Structure of Glutathione S-transferase:
Amino acid sequence: MPLYRLHYFPESGNSYKLALMLTLCGETFEPVWTDFAGGVTRTAEWRKAVNEMGEIPVLEVDGVKMTQTAPLLLKLAEQYGRFGAETEDEKFELLRWLFWDNHKLTGYMATYRFMRAFTEKNDPQVLKHFRRRLEDFLGILDGHLQHNEFAIGAKPTVADISMMAYLHYPSDEHGFDFGTSYPAVHGWLGRMAALPGWKPAYELLPGKRMTNYAK
């Protein structure tokens, strides 16, 4: 069986995506806490030794370091035969929502949440811009989930794991009340949390936490 080591920090939703996927597939991993807030990923030494792209997460598989969450989720789905797609139409839909999430939902939520909660001084106008964009994206997702149990239909896939990761964190971090404003998203998050073996990020990803200035 593969030996997994996951380089992460607890607030990283992208790290959580891989941790959750492995957990739902019945696998364990060695957690490697990374001092992201301390700037270690921006050092030349770390980038040379761990990830030339300067990003977290990094998944080591039998000692081989692999990066970029979306292709890793797809690789794991194929490897374990879980949370993937079956038909060509499903494969297209899975990629469509996975890429949309990476470019839009995760892309904006990760930045907005970091600036809002984990940056001591931020620009209110920048936050306002990001929030407006996120409200649009969340509205799109809510409309889609009003007619679909999961991203591509009746069963969860890695597209769902990718989209839900940053949304499941505490509301005092991202500042949204999904139950009130986006009830279909709220219901879908509940269905994801009901999957056998599901655990929240701060349970799967231990270690020193960053200061939350939004509390």
